[in-house]
Fold this sequence. Notes:
Blueprint: H1 2-13, H2 19-46, E1 52-64, E2 76-79, E3 85-90, E4 100-104, E5 106-110, E6 116-120, E7 126-139, E8 145-147, E9 151-153, E10 158-162, E11 167-177
Amino acid sequence: MSRVKKDKAARKNRPHFNAIDAMIIILVIVAIVGVYFRYTIVDFLTGDRNVDEYVVSFSIEDIRYTTPNYINVGDNVYFASSGELLGILTSESENNKEPLNITLASEEFTDSDGNIVEVFYPEETRVNAKGRILCKGNYSSSGGFSVDGNEYIAAGQSVEVYTEKVTVTLKITSIERYEG
């Protein structure tokens, strides 16, 4: 008999799993799911993708000299492939209010001595242009830049874009956070 009493007493002193323990475990699981839901699913559903403003610098090579006349500060720039907004054309630099920095287009040839010679097109024929687009996006963990969470771009990439009046192919030269 005394052995049975000792077994009952030992069982009473051991920790038991009860309803309060189950509630604590459930609350911890709910808290973890809540944090996950807040930082992933809600952002996805509301479209908030933690985007910041960036300046995408670009160059356009060998275009007609009249094309820059149709490009203005404030123009919306869209991806030709999808129609998604890339951004808004801004001035070429903070000091300059022009949308593009225009230079004469040129080509390089090798002369009879093997030297590389740069030959410029005559004025009012072909030009090169450099500019900047203000866009919203973010860098992903994989290293790519996502424009508003939809389109990926990178420095060195050529992208066909359009504005209200003109379609051109940009070569992206840099992507930097907008400080302004």
